[in-house]
């Protein structure tokens, strides 16, 4: 027993960039991958970690001094640096228990499909990381791994249910039938639902704005390198850097924002054979039923409303970050708030005006939640050794997906009464949304889903 | 070498899933081509020098290159047809 403990400790001590690849290798072999492929995937995983460490380290080295200088000059302390979702994903994959979420999600999905409690078959294995993130955050805040996984189970269930709700809407927005996005980022829609019903009563809120035209004008600003350069330059100026140092910071920031997704891709490259094997398995056993295939949100990325609203929110995020009392988050890596944009494009059925309003109204919520989680995210980074965070600063993610759920349940599991109250409230609002939206959809789409799918297939066969 | 690009929201997960799958399929068929995952915000830049564009979202404009349905690779439905189109386009 002691020998086993020593071996495990020895492996863990080598840090995430070694022990996670070893776990990957074992899983790959169990999944019947060819040994050479499994070793290759394992090494890419290690490279992904080391690479992410490089880029995040580079970003922190450039931005932290600027943030600290800004704090000295203005008294506004924004010392939690936003590494965005790619950083959060990177440190989450480094958590030793991360891989337990895979079997949990698959098991719950299979059970729910067998009992016809859901129509969604979730083959999106990438976003398992989001649930691992929930697990580790709650395990830190409540001190219990078991409670953490209980919350993960709850999240998997509500994700599948919301997947059922979005299916028809997504077909409307993308033209693709039979798919859905059972992503936890969309869950905030259930909290905004009551407000949305109120807005229905105001005639002006029902007008449609032309997102296509707006996107043309704003388009180039959304590119990572341009955005990074602009934010870096502005940060340099407010930090009192003067023009030349600000220009240097501009390029450094642009570099970080451009490289983040490039290195993140490596995680996906490593995971893809395993993810494919799991997807195949799920499809083989459930593929012929009337189901929605659950995919990741980018199938919606063609909707310009998402990009336009996210870009318009950027100045608001920066403004709120500075004026909100108690906020410690410097928005950077996560500044394109896809978490809200995707949720509200579905909720509002592509109504850009409402999307922008929701975006502005929820920005303070995102910032405060990010502030709340920053010590825990920093702790995860330090404990896994995945990223080095400098003294006096913290690492965070300014636009945490489904943050309200995480916050409520974390506090509840930690025994705080307001957490339990908020958790019950969250579930109540979700139930309200689920049943209310189902009725709305029946009215809006005018026919029963089964009939509709039959119509679509008839049309496709005649083409 | 011929170049295939796949675009999704951030160029990280979904497009990479499809890119990895396409790479594997091409390897099995002994067709050599570069397959790259890019983010949809930079699409205009990348689509100029590619030979095939695999779209995860229904494109509203014609980019002048053979455009395939990326969703087929994700759901498996209709994938064989897209693979045929891909092989044709890479000849």
UniProtKB/TrEMBL annotation, chain A:
<feature type="transmembrane region" description="Helical">
    <location>
        <begin position="12"/>
        <end position="31"/>
    </location>
</feature>
<feature type="transmembrane region" description="Helical">
    <location>
        <begin position="93"/>
        <end position="115"/>
    </location>
</feature>
<feature type="transmembrane region" description="Helical">
    <location>
        <begin position="136"/>
        <end position="158"/>
    </location>
</feature>
<feature type="transmembrane region" description="Helical">
    <location>
        <begin position="306"/>
        <end position="324"/>
    </location>
</feature>
<keyword id="KW-0762">Sugar transport</keyword>
<keyword id="KW-1133">Transmembrane helix</keyword>
<feature type="transmembrane region" description="Helical">
    <location>
        <begin position="355"/>
        <end position="377"/>
    </location>
</feature>
<feature type="transmembrane region" description="Helical">
    <location>
        <begin position="38"/>
        <end position="60"/>
    </location>
</feature>
<keyword id="KW-1003">Cell membrane</keyword>
<dbReference type="GO" id="GO:0009401">
    <property type="term" value="P:phosphoenolpyruvate-dependent sugar phosphotransferase system"/>
</dbReference>
<feature type="transmembrane region" description="Helical">
    <location>
        <begin position="417"/>
        <end position="435"/>
    </location>
</feature>
<dbReference type="GO" id="GO:0005886">
    <property type="term" value="C:plasma membrane"/>
</dbReference>
<dbReference type="InterPro" id="IPR013853">
    <property type="entry name" value="EIIC-GAT"/>
</dbReference>
<protein>
    <recommendedName>
        <fullName>PTS EIIC type-2 domain-containing protein</fullName>
    </recommendedName>
</protein>
<feature type="transmembrane region" description="Helical">
    <location>
        <begin position="330"/>
        <end position="348"/>
    </location>
</feature>
<keyword id="KW-0813">Transport</keyword>
<dbReference type="InterPro" id="IPR013014">
    <property type="entry name" value="PTS_EIIC_2"/>
</dbReference>
<keyword id="KW-0812">Transmembrane</keyword>
<dbReference type="GO" id="GO:0015577">
    <property type="term" value="F:galactitol transmembrane transporter activity"/>
</dbReference>
<feature type="transmembrane region" description="Helical">
    <location>
        <begin position="220"/>
        <end position="241"/>
    </location>
</feature>
<keyword id="KW-0472">Membrane</keyword>
<dbReference type="InterPro" id="IPR004703">
    <property type="entry name" value="PTS_sugar-sp_permease"/>
</dbReference>
UniProtKB/TrEMBL annotation, chain B:
<dbReference type="GO" id="GO:0009401">
    <property type="term" value="P:phosphoenolpyruvate-dependent sugar phosphotransferase system"/>
</dbReference>
<keyword id="KW-0808">Transferase</keyword>
<dbReference type="Pfam" id="PF02302">
    <property type="entry name" value="PTS_IIB"/>
</dbReference>
<keyword id="KW-0813">Transport</keyword>
<dbReference type="InterPro" id="IPR036095">
    <property type="entry name" value="PTS_EIIB-like_sf"/>
</dbReference>
<keyword id="KW-0762">Sugar transport</keyword>
<feature type="domain" description="PTS EIIB type-2">
    <location>
        <begin position="2"/>
        <end position="91"/>
    </location>
</feature>
<dbReference type="InterPro" id="IPR003501">
    <property type="entry name" value="PTS_EIIB_2/3"/>
</dbReference>
<dbReference type="GO" id="GO:0008982">
    <property type="term" value="F:protein-N(PI)-phosphohistidine-sugar phosphotransferase activity"/>
</dbReference>
<protein>
    <submittedName>
        <fullName>PTS sugar transporter subunit IIB</fullName>
        <ecNumber>2.7.1.-</ecNumber>
    </submittedName>
</protein>
<dbReference type="InterPro" id="IPR013011">
    <property type="entry name" value="PTS_EIIB_2"/>
</dbReference>
């Amino acid at each position: 027993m002691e020998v086993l403990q020593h071996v495990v400790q020895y492996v863990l001590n080598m840090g995430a960039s070694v022990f996670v690849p070893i776990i990957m290798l074992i899983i790959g072999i169990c999944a019947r991958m060819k040994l050479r492929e499994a070793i290759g995937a394992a090494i890419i995983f290690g490279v992904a970690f080391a690479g992410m460490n490089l880029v995040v380290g580079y970003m922190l080295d450039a931005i932290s001094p600027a943030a600290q200088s800004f704090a000295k000059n203005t008294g506004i302390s924004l010392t939690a640096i936003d590494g965005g979702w790619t950083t959060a994903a990177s440190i989450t994959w480094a958590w030793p228990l991360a891989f337990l979420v895979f079997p949990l999600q698959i098991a719950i999905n299979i059970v729910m499909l067998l009992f016809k409690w859901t129509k969604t078959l979730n083959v999106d294995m990438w976003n398992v990381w989001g649930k691992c993130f929930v697990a580790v955050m709650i395990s830190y805040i409540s001190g219990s791994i078991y409670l953490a996984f209980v919350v993960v189970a709850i999240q998997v269930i509500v994700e599948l249910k919301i997947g059922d709700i979005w299916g028809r809407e997504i077909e409307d927005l993308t033209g693709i039938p039979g798919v859905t996005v059972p992503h936890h980022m969309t869950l905030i829609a259930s909290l905004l639902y009551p407000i949305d019903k109120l807005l229905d009563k105001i005639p002006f809120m029902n007008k449609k704005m032309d997102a296509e035209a707006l996107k043309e004008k704003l388009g180039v600003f959304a590119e990572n390198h341009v955005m990074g350069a602009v934010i870096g330059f502005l940060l340099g100026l407010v930090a009192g850097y003067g023009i030349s140092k600000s220009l240097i910071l501009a390029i450094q920031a642009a570099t970080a924002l451009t490289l983040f997704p490039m290195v993140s891709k490596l995680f996906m490259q490593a995971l893809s054979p395993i993810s494919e094997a799991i997807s195949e398995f799920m499809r083989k056993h459930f593929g012929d039923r009337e189901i929605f295939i659950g995919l990741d949100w980018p199938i919606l990325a063609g909707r310009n409303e998402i990009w336009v609203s996210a870009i318009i929110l950027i100045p608001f995020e920066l403004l709120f970050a500075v004026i909100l009392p108690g906020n410690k988050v410097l928005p950077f890596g996560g500044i394109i708030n896809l978490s809200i944009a995707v949720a509200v494009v579905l909720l509002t059925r592509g109504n850009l005006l409402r999307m922008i309003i929701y975006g502005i109204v929820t920005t303070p919520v995102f910032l405060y939640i990010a502030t709340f989680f920053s010590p825990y995210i920093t702790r995860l980074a330090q404990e896994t050794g995945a990223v080095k965070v400098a003294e006096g600063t913290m690492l965070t993610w300014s636009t945490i997906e489904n943050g309200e759920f995480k916050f409520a349940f974390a506090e509840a599991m930690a025994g705080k009464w307001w957490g339990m109250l908020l958790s019950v409230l969250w579930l109540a609002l979700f139930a309200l949304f689920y049943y209310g939206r189902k009725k709305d959809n029946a009215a809006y789409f005018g026919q029963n889903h089964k009939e509709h799918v039959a119509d679509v297939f008839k049309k496709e066969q005649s083409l | 070498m011929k170049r295939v690009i796949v675009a999704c929201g951030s160029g990280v997960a979904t497009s990479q899933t499809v890119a990895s799958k396409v790479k594997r399929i091409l390897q099995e068929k002994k067709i050599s081509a570069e397959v790259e995952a890019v983010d949809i915000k930079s699409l205009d830049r990348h689509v100029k020098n590619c030979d095939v564009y695999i779209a995860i979202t229904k494109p509203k404009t014609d980019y002048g290159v053979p455009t395939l349905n990326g969703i087929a690779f994700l759901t498996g439905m209709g994938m064989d047809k897209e693979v045929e189109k891909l092989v044709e386009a890479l000849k």
